[in-house]
Amino acid sequence: MNEKLKEKIQESLSSVLPITVIVLILSISLVPMEIGTLALFLTGAVLLIVGMGFFQLGAEMAMTPLGQSVGGRLIKSKKIILIILVSFFMGAIITIAEPDLQVLANQVASVPNQVLIWTVAVGVGIFLVVAVLRIIFRISLPMMLLVFYILLFLLSFFSPDSFTAVAFDSGGVTTGPMTVPFIMALGVGFSAARSDREGASDSFGLVALCSIGPIMMVLLLGIFYNPEEAVYTATEIADIATTQDVVKQFILAVPEYSKEVVVSILPVGGVFLLFQVFTRIFHKRQVLRMVVGFVYTIVGLILFLTGVNVGFAPVGSLLGSGLGESVFKWSLIPIGIIIGYYIVKAEPAVQVLNKQVEDLTGGTISHKMMNSALSLGVACAVALSMVRVLTGINIYWIIIPGYIIAIIMSRFVSPVFVGIAFDSGGVASGPMTSTFLLPLAMGACTAVGGNVVTDAFGVVALVAMAPLLAIQIMGLIYMHKSKAVSQVAEEFSEDTVVEIEEDFE
């Protein structure tokens, strides 16, 4: 267990370290920071790394087996009403506990945290039901994506501009480290219980559809909810004189985030308890392991949220403000490219995805090729986000053409690659996007005098969109290579037949 925890913390370190190094370099060169501020940032980074390590191990120990078991039991029951009710409930309560969503809710000043969180949770619940019914009734994923994204864009024209970028961001942050393991495991449970040829490929696409739900519900919230205009100001960092002051800031914040985490996790623990009481599916040792997993999850979330909100995100906002106010404001674009490249490169969930694609294609699309494609895609997405911050370009000019191209490509790519591509959008927009990139964009936007709601929000959405294009391009390359190999094999086979016939004569 200790070795596994060590491995998870190392994975988190590889994700956070590039950002930390970039911040330190910028604090020396372009945006000088006080020693106390840097101490606050580094302490937050340490808590974030350790917290994510505990959290990821906890989710793996508790969420994954729970998701697989629930999925398998539900589809074996063959009771559609039960499947619908349980899928909705599980999708909603897992989403409430998602750390990335809580970070986003704290940054959307125009809507109360709980209103946004519950809106998103309902959206995930509804579309998890849709995703499950798709598997049961064998409905085409590309067709469903086409219909729902057309509906999304039509709906967005009736929603206020202040909700559009937030809505698309919510789709990216929802599918985070808490939600993805459970939803993917649920899909595996359903497909395993089906045990047919299409079952494995149908397990992809659950995350893709669950990402649509939050976007749709937040857009509807924008139509029917009339919030008061919120003023976004640059984050103020407490005066830090000594190391004691640093420790004090984090200790004071722990009770608040502990309460939030316990309230979020308790419903999930309740579901686990009820499921075990009625099914007795887990033996004593498994139950103990999952209980330990829930404890790890709670500890990890507390450390994560405390580190992010007290030390990590505020410095991201401060850095953005400093760059936005300087004569080097256009340096935000190359800095965004570097951050985007390394964020996705170091994301543990992305590495899992890349290995999955390599295995699926038999090595035709290598792990290295996938890494390069995703890194370049996300780097471009972050660069476009910084251009939006500096110029105020409407997100529609980027996101509508991007999704149109992605949906058109889905008609020519293998359904498996379509599922992986749209699933990976949620995977790529990991914890670093909502905890650092978004505050950076908000700080820069405030400094240049832009509209934070319309210009800064949307960075998560663009990062989530990049893999849709990158992975489908990889899918087209795979199809081309497969055809070339097949043609060579056929030609070789024909030549062999001729030679055998000649020898026989």
UniProtKB/TrEMBL annotation:
Q: Where is the signal peptide?
A: none
Alphabetic keyword roster: Membrane, Transmembrane, Transmembrane helix
Superkingdom is Bacteria
Please give the name of this protein: DUF1538 domain-containing protein
The answer, when asked if ATP-binding is one of the entry's keywords, is no
Transmembrane segments annotated in the record for this chain: 12-32, 38-59, 80-97, 117-137, 144-168, 174-192, 204-225, 261-282, 294-315, 327-344, 434-453, 459-479
